[in-house]
Amino acid sequence: MKAYLFKHDLPVKKFAADLKISVSYLYQLLRKERKPSLELALRIERYTHGEISVAELLEEKVDHSTVLDGYLNTERSRIEKNLKRLENRLRYLEEKFETLEKLIKRG
Prior knowledge:
The structure is a single chain. The chain is mostly helical. It has two domains: 1-60, 434 Repressor (Amino-terminal Domain); 63-107. It contains six helices and no strands.
């Protein structure tokens, strides 16, 4: 990653902000004190248009279908949570609408 930042004259603060991580966490990644999550590794790979790969970041051979499956499972879980939240909100609004209709009929 250091080479990418140098090559593209990219400040650490901007790179961290674009990736939505703290500068201190990015420095830990740069010093190889920590490894990124799979999700962050995928974001970095996309951000760098593949110049920095998931395999390089995780320092292991990666089966891209496994990486994709993990990412898709994460996204599916996020979407399911949002859908459940929306369904609950819809149910709440439908109940309020029914109450309002009853009040109008009485009025």
